Amino acid sequence: MDGRKIYDLRRCDDLIMAVELTLPSISAQSMTLQSVEPITLVLGSVLNIAPTITTNPTISGTAKVGKTLTATAGDTTGTPPPTSTLQWQRSDNGTSGWSDISGATETTFVLVSADETKYLRVEQTATNIEGSVTATSASTSQVASAFSFLLDDYGGAAAAYSLRLLREEYQGSAIQVRRASDNQETSIGFVDNDLDIETLEEFASGTKAFVTIWRDQSGNGNDIEISSASQQPQIVDGGSTITDGGKASMAIDETYSRGLEIPITASSRQDFFQVHKTNDTGFIIFKDSASTSRFVWANQDGSTSTTFYLNYGTPSLFVNGTSQNPENRDALHSLLSTNNQVLVSSIGGDSSEFTGNIKWGYYSSAFIYDGNLQEIIFYNSDQSSNRTGIETNINDHYSIY
Amino acid sequence: MYYVSTNKEDLDSYNEHVSVAENYNGTTTHWSEIIEHPNGTDFAIMKHEKYDSDLTEVDSLSEDWFE
Question: Is the ipTM of this complex over 0.85?
Fold first, then answer.
């Protein structure tokens, strides 16, 4: 029983220590440990351990053409420490058929048109001298088409008001708002090309907020300013942003409104597009602020009048992309006051006789707009050839029809 | 609800009173616009729910105010 050597291997960092023990003589009678030989430590060579990936890689960013995705490699173990590489992969359905995207091995990946409607993931490979192992991230959502900015595709607007971003290079805010709690005002911009609702609701702090300025995104500086508190459209109620179709919207109450004063110049050609939602009994879209004898698109429940416009050229009307020739104001009312979002396109107007500003949504007490409003775009130029493209852009955003 | 008067200054005073009390700032400069009747002698202003006045109060303005 004596003199035998045993070895106890113990790991210390990357080294393996072999502890050599020589067993002492043991008394057959007492089985008492008599003595212990000196311990000899032998530093062994590095023990290599194959790599493992202990957490899967992840992807952050918006899955939309033109946006950048960022991959974060998962944690690894192994001896020596493995190095990781990334490979972006594309799939038609997000579950199978993943194929490598050539050259896409960086931590960031800019989505291109080839990625539209596809799904992406990233594959991480961890390698050391013992081998390699792979792990994949979860799939992105289906890659959406690139955001198309209306004024980048169809420029030259005389004025453009919206609660979404209309021009990629526009640096201003969307609106300025006043909160009811203390009448303080602040500007609200955009997040992901839509109104920054989080900031808006944080500012409103559970109460109401009203629009004091609706910014013109055309670059012409034709902001709509409403200095009378009682006439300002409401955009937050009870701390929540007013919405139509899931998009921010502003409410115009006929009890308080005197319309919106739009300071654009008169023009012998005026085309415009707007998105509204109302079940009003009658309103005009706008008039000359200096005269009641110049207006366009008068509509009224039960009215047989055929005077839809006056001293405004001979505009054509399209509702939700379809040409309309209503027989009277009652028929037009049925088209415009559906209590759903409506896209109105007016092509071929002539405001050259206007001597005042455009007075939107107000004619008299019988014609005050009562409802919600999300967007108005004015062109002082012929947009007949662009009409369907503009309508498509608007409908792509609001999903009206 | 509206306050009506033949004295526009009375309505201006009410407007000023509300505006100061509410401490409007920024773009908002006043409570409401003074509405002038086409007859040129009558005026009206929207009543603020928090501020009463001894002025004559009416529920609404008839259409002739806006013609």
Answer: yes
